[in-house]
Amino acid sequence: MLIDHASLWLAETNCWVIAPEKGGPAVVIDAPPDSEGVAGLLARHDLYPAALLLTHAHIDHFGAVGAASGGGSAAVYLHPDDTWLAADPLAQLRSMWGMTPPGDYEQPDRFHDLEHGMRIDAGGVAVDVVHTPGHTPGHCCFHVPDQEVLFSGDQLFAGSIGRTDLPGGDTAALMRSMAERVVTLPPQTKVLPGHGPATTLARELESNPFLQALPT
Fold it and tell me: Which strand (E) or helix (H) includes residue 17?
């Protein structure tokens, strides 16, 4: 299985691609507002998008999803609890950044709904959806069980967790979803976050101070 990423745009958001092999379809996870960067990541392995999965609708994770979907040829998935965030990306930019920084903000014609527990089969890749509200109401992680990999978005980072001080954030909800749906995965699970370096669930359970605070 091919898994690669590029850290893109001002927020250095990780855009991930998963594919059975080079030269074919891929699943793209998150599309920062840098369509050339997303295209370059796919071109690096001669891939094309079969589906785009959005961990949540903060602009640094979905800004270029319209362009990255290949003109609508690839289905774009988002949890419905985040559609209010996706509805007006420029207003989101002004409220979160206080400006409209350079970037690509092309949106798809429609979003397909993510649901907790659903499995998405696309491009020869099977991805399980884990709804983890807290960072945003509709935040989702994506688990690839046969690779023991969790794409954690802004739920879990190396040494930290997602912020909850933005509109829709809820610290108690994030910690509940962490306890019930993330740390219950096998400890050897590799965690590939939306920002920063990869880690493992075992490492975070041992050293991440926020996970130390979870009820046992």
Answer: strand 13-19
Q: Give the whole-angstrom CA distance, residue 88 versus residue 95.
A: 11
Residues 170, 155, 38, 60, CA torsion sign: positive
Nearest to 196 by CA among 2, 9, 14, 6: 14
Residue with tokens 């659903």: 118
C-alpha 143, offset from chain centre: 11
Question: Where are the extended beta strands (E) located within 93-155?
Answer: 112-113, 119-122, 125-131, 140-144, 149-153
On whether the CB atoms of residues 166 and 154 are closer than 8 A, the answer is no
Q: Which domains does the chain have, with CATH numbers?
A: 2-212 (3.60.15.10)
Cα→Cα distances 69→8, 29, 88, 117, 158, Å:
17, 11, 19, 24, 29
**Is pTM, for the whole model, over 0.85?**
yes
- pLDDT tens figures, 84-116: 999 988 788 887 777 777 788 888 888 999 999
Q: Out of 25-39, 48-62, 65-79, 186-200, pick the least confident.
A: 65-79
CA angle 28, 45, 9 (to 5 degrees): 50
